[in-house]
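re: the backbone from monday

yeah here it is again, tokenized this time
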């Protein structure tokens, strides 16, 4: 048996299991979804000689705010607002000065009809972008504030 990782149909790698016979022929791989989280990449070391219970939990020390911001963006593109909010909040916990985080929270809130929360987060994003001197992001956030006040969706998959 061979376990490998890949991402043919997801933004994150998944684990697969296949049988490799003595002639080098393989069976169609089976996805091992129950062993991974849908919002995490699965990476496995090759040829590790450990007992089956040696790895019970994957530590998330490698997760930082840019990783969570990218994940939030991917969730927004697929209209998964809960996933986007979860990842944005993780990013906010790592770096409260990342202006993209409240921007993505605002998109999520606006598209779920929570205009007040959306505007609050857009104001926070604008303040953070101004403190960082990021003119491009300031322009983008200002445009989103105007759109939010007019009422259309801010989602990237809905014409953002």
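seq for it, each position gets an aa:
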């Amino acid at each position: 048996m061979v376990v490998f990782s890949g991402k043919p149909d997801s933004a994150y790698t998944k684990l697969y299991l296949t049988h490799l016979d003595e002639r080098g022929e393989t069976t169609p791989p089976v996805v091992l979804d129950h062993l991974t989280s849908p919002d995490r990449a699965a990476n496995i070391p090759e040829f590790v000689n450990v007992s089956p219970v040696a790895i019970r939990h994957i530590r998330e020390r490698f997760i930082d705010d840019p990783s969570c911001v990218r994940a939030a963006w991917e969730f927004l593109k697929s209209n998964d607002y809960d996933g986007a909010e979860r990842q944005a909040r993780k990013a906010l916990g790592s770096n409260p000065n990342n202006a993209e985080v409240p921007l993505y929270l605002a998109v999520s809130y606006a598209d779920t009809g929570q205009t007040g929360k959306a505007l609050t987060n857009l104001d926070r994003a604008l303040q953070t972008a101004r403190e960082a001197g990021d003119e491009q992001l300031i322009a983008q956030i200002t445009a989103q504030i105007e759109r939010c006040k007019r009422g259309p969706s801010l989602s990237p998959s809905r014409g953002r």
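The beta strands are 2-6, 14-18, 30-31. The first strand starts at residue 2 and ends at 6.
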